[in-house]
Amino acid sequence: MRPGEPLTGQRLLAWALALAAVLALSVLMGVAWGTGSLSLVDLLPGGPPLSEQARAVFFNVRLPRVLAAAFLGGALTVAGVVFQALLRNPLADPYVLGVSGGASIGGVLALLFGFGSAASLLGELAVPAFAFLGALSALFLIEWVATVGGKLTVYTILLTGAIFNAFASALIYFIQTIASLEQLHAIVFYLMGSVPMLGYRGVGFLAATSVLATLALFSMARDYNALTVGEEGAAQLGVDVERIKRRTFILGSLLTGLAVSVAGLIGFVGLVVPHLLRLILGPDHRLLLPAAFLGGGAFLVLADLIARVAVAPSELPVGVVTALVGGPFFLYLLRRKGSRYDFA
Predict the structure, then answer these.
(1) What is the reported pTM?
(2) Which of 122 and 305 is assigned the larger pLDDT?
(3) Which letter does DSSP use for residue 58 in this model?
(4) On the chain, which terminus has fewer CB atoms closer than 10 Å, C or N?
């Protein structure tokens, strides 16, 4: 199954099953290994009896966290794939269009004003709620600014997103200077990215949202393939280019905003994994998009596992792990492939 092979139903099924197996294995590793003495083997029939506290830790803490990491990784990777298709640039990532800046501002403001404390009205939901509100505000603002003459131009989106991210960074730096030491610690940890402790309702919402958005984007996979020849060429092939650009920007931004709102900024997932999958599988988005969801989920589950056990009993922000692993690996890929890298 080489990258240049024509996509067939058999090849798509084979890769989907292979990557689903990788994701399942990653999830099993994530729930079996941890800082505590409880492992997956302890839950098998015939194993030693477990206390209620041990079962609560496994089912209410470890398992939902691993599942959240899987869906977050999938969402970020799919967003990276479609933004790379939209901008026709393999170096684009989910944070390039500015929505992450809006989400970061919302989350940081919630931490600054103490809305994320357990005593607040929304409790632990405050930071994700404010961050997602910030992401939606940034989405509407950027779309409004980037729409010229009823058209959403790629370069205007990119430029507007870059400017908004710069503004968001400056505002966050200002907030950090006026924050207390405790608030500053919470803000820095949030911005570095970490997989949250969600309950099953939160995981279910994350799963439903990310899967539905991915399916909507997958329905445009043939159009993304056509976009590789340029907007004019895609239009000649019958693609409604403006509709595809707008839907991609909105759905990809919603995936990004959702991920940032609950997990902060987790870098390199939406850059390294799409790049690696495109090198292995080729540029056909009918295969690349489902592979991105499964492969990105496996990548973040394993990164979160490393974050939990590397400096136990302390814990690293998972964004640090993805940067330390993803950065050198990405440079290695570029060095190894060089000019042979094929985006289209």
Answers:
(1) 0.89
(2) 305
(3) I
(4) C
